[in-house]
Automatic annotation (TrEMBL):
This is Alkanesulfonate monooxygenase. GO terms for biological process: alkanesulfonate catabolic process. Its EC number is 1.14.14.5. Pfam families: Bac_luciferase. It comes from Ciceribacter lividus. SUPFAM superfamilies: Bacterial luciferase-like. Catalyzes the desulfonation of aliphatic sulfonates. Belongs to the SsuD family. One of its GO terms (molecular function) is alkanesulfonate monooxygenase activity. NCBIfam families: alk_sulf_monoox (TIGR03565), PRK00719.1 (NF001939). The keyword Ribonucleoprotein does not apply. Keywords: Flavoprotein, FMN, Monooxygenase, Oxidoreductase. InterPro entries: Alkanesulphonate_mOase_FMN-dep, Luciferase-like_dom, Luciferase-like_sf, SsuD_RutA_monooxygenase.
Length: 389
């Protein structure tokens, strides 16, 4: 079976810094609320998503604590939990990760976030310049991996010192929970080649994604390793292409030019991330040319840092675009959409049947056969009138 035939591994997103109907506007915005995150996680679990990404940052709820809570409310859902080297020691993170993998019965995935905002990192006690952060991450994950895989580790490194580190309890998954990672700089790609199981790219146009995949593959092969690939994208899927484009326009309909200018100025001032620079270059702060490749819309990046593009269209259109990425080697999608609860339903109900993924309809029988005409007070669906009744 080739990668184009195999269904995508499809994850959703927990918006731990808040959510809303209109980006860049307070109208119908939703605060970061643990109860709401549980609603999204339980919906994603039922709707056929394999997991959820939980980000990290000063404006986010803490990723490990939140994942532990959500694990208790879900059955199969995996948790792609952001881990930022340097905010705690590798030994401490190995304990956190092993315990979270144990309490969730093997449902932990880790997303390595080295960070691209020096001011924010300074607040966490991390003062290294861009490329040295990756040298630090290299030592961090040498210790983390050895410890979580074998129960002991030692390193007297330039950045990390772990003398006689021990881990009492192993994770459920062997040899350890998988490591995911995103970063577009040369240093990031060299790091990913040495350590990561799955390289995640932002939702760039297919030609740029193809280039990146080739570069990461070459770098990994030079180290005798093989890396899988995923993409981080928003989705605006509606029954028709026209409706989907209307929904995209509506999403930024309350966004003022001043808010866009302020967001772009803030990214330029605070970020040293190559990945962020590549996302901004797709639109350059202009709202008049947002379809940056067929059905790939950069409107979200006008005000949101990180994932700034959405696939927009009918289920068939979006499925065709996804197949283009799959043909390049992408096997995993980390998806989101505003607001995240309603859009989790839309993507599952509209898109999943087109891409061979099962939603809740495939998990539970709805009846023994013809559904009875009355009782329950539901909306009735396509009830057939049973003769004689
Ligand atoms: C899929 C994905 C998820 C990310 N999640 C986070 C996050 O939760 N918090 C964060 O601060 N940065 C996040 N990042 C940003 C990267 O971790 C990294 O800091 C940034 O890309 C800078 O690296 P670069 O200069 O090598 O591109 C994410 C990146 C990708 C591709």
């Amino acid at each position: 079976m080739t990668h184009t035939q195999k269904p995508l591994d499809f994850l959703w997103f927990i918006p731990t810094s808040g959510d809303g109907t209109y980006i860049g506007s307070d109208t119908l915005s939703r605060p970061a609320d643990p109860g709401y995150f549980r609603e999204i996680a339980t919906a994603a679990d039922r709707l056929g998503y394999s997991g959820v990404l939980i980000p990290t940052g000063v404006a986010c709820e803490e990723s490990f604590v939140l994942a532990a809570n959500l694990a208790a409310h879900t059955e199969k859902l995996k948790f792609l939990v952001a881990i930022r080297p340097g905010t705690a020691s590798p030994a401490y993170y190995a304990r956190l990760a092993a315990t979270l993998d144990r309490v969730s019965n093997g449902r932990l995935l880790l997303n390595i976030v080295v960070g691209g905002n020096p001011q924010e990192l300074a607040g966490d006690g991390i003062f290294l310049p861009h490329d040295e952060r990756y040298a630090h991450a290299d030592e961090f994950f040498r210790v983390f991996n050895e410890l979580i895989e074998t129960g002991s580790a030692d390193l007297d490194g330039q950045y990390i010192k772990a003398i006689g580190a021990r881990l009492g309890f192993p994770p459920v998954q062997t040899p350890r929970p998988p490591l995911y990672f995103g970063g577009s700089s040369d240093a990031a790609i060299q790091f990913s080649a040495g350590f990561v199981d799955k390289y995640l790219t932002w939702g760039e146009p297919p030609e740029q994604v193809a280039e990146k995949i080739a570069t990461v593959r070459r770098a990994a092969a030079a180290k005798g390793r093989d890396v899988g690939f995923g993409i981080r994208l928003h989705f605006i899927v509606r029954e028709t292409d026209e409706e989907a484009w209307e929904a995209a326009d509506r999403l930024i309909s309350r966004l003022s030019d001043e808010t866009i200018a302020a967001a772009q100025e803030s990214f330029a001032r605070t970020s040293d991330s190559v990945g962020q620079t590549r996302m901004i270059a797709l639109h350059n702060g202009r709202r008049d040319k947002l379809e940056v490749s067929p059905n790939l819309w950069a409107g979200i990046g006008l005000v949101r840092s990180g994932a700034g593009t959405a696939l927009v269209g009918s289920p068939k259109t979006v499925a065709a675009r996804l197949r283009e990425y799959q043909a390049l080697g992408i096997d995993t999608v980390v998806a989101s959409g505003y607001p995240h609860l309603e859009e989790a339903y839309r993507v599952s109900e509209l898109l999943f049947p087109e891409i061979g993924l099962g939603g809740p309809r495939n998990q539970i029988r709805s009846s023994f056969g013809d559904r009875p005409l009355f009782g329950g007070g539901g909306h009735g669906g396509n009830l057939r009138v049973v003769s004689g009744s």
